[in-house]
Amino acid sequence: MIRKKEGFQGQRMIVIPRNILSRKCAKEALLSPLYITDIGYYPRALFHHRKRPQGADQHILIYCLEGKGTVTLKKVSYNIQAGDCILLPRKWAHEYSADEKDPWTIYWAHFLGSSSDEITEKALKEWGGHKTFLPHSPERLEQFERIYQQLQRGYRSEYLAYSNMNFWSFLSSCIYPGIHKPGQANQQHDAVDQAIDYMNKNLDKMLTLQQMAAAVNLSQSHFSFLFKSSTGFPPIEYFNHLKVQKACQYLLFTSLRIKEVAMQLGMEDPYYFSRMFTKVMGVSPAQYRERKN
């Protein structure tokens, strides 16, 4: 059987010189949290095959644009087809290959950094495993191209910074496709997003937990569980944070008195509003306005 690591017609690949990685990327504060080590694009990669019994030194992301392939991670196999994205954690034994009849076209990147382990863990948690499906997004592919083209120009500090800062955004669009493309999130995130939209539309009211849950057709207990699991905050506390955020805008950009700001946010008691604001912001509304002015 013919097997090839690379050498496909139309392929593109950049391997960042290792002295650049060690001297700049791994040491500079701006780059060290997350940086690309290798990046490429393999179109219709017939006979593509890689096997790393000890895994790679970097995390690997593979996004399949079209065609098919197979990835095996620690003896667990995944069938890959158009739209699938898979993450291979560093040091994990793996093997992957393109389908012989319908070889895949893939975008791929190897990455490291002090935050790379946590980012990979977050992706696996969000996806519920190593593989997810990404709705087609021209914006995501255009961003990949910008990253690639900038790295192709060399390794000036600004080129590395631009590429790797964009890579944060690229990874975010892969980890959170429902946020990148609103309306395409999973059911749990849809309910939370709908609730947040409902909160933002009703900042002038004092919503109850019952009203929030009813707005997304969930029981109070299930809604509270989903919301806190997704955001890290109980719904009412999150709602109050949104109110304080809006209050900051009123304090900065209007001449409304503190009492009037409270009224705009559905609070008849200005003292209650001031206490809530101070708890969140660490200063009173009057102090906040004075400091910013």
Automatic annotation (TrEMBL):
Key words, A-Z: DNA-binding, Transcription, Transcription regulation
Cited SUPFAM superfamilies: Homeodomain-like, Regulatory protein AraC
HTH araC/xylS-type domain span: 206-289
DNA-binding keyword on record: yes
One function term, GO molecular function aspect: DNA-binding transcription factor activity
Matches recorded under PANTHER family: ARAC-FAMILY TRANSCRIPTIONAL REGULATOR (PTHR43280), MMSAB OPERON REGULATORY PROTEIN (PTHR43280:SF30)
Protein name: AraC family transcriptional regulator
Species: Chitinophaga eiseniae
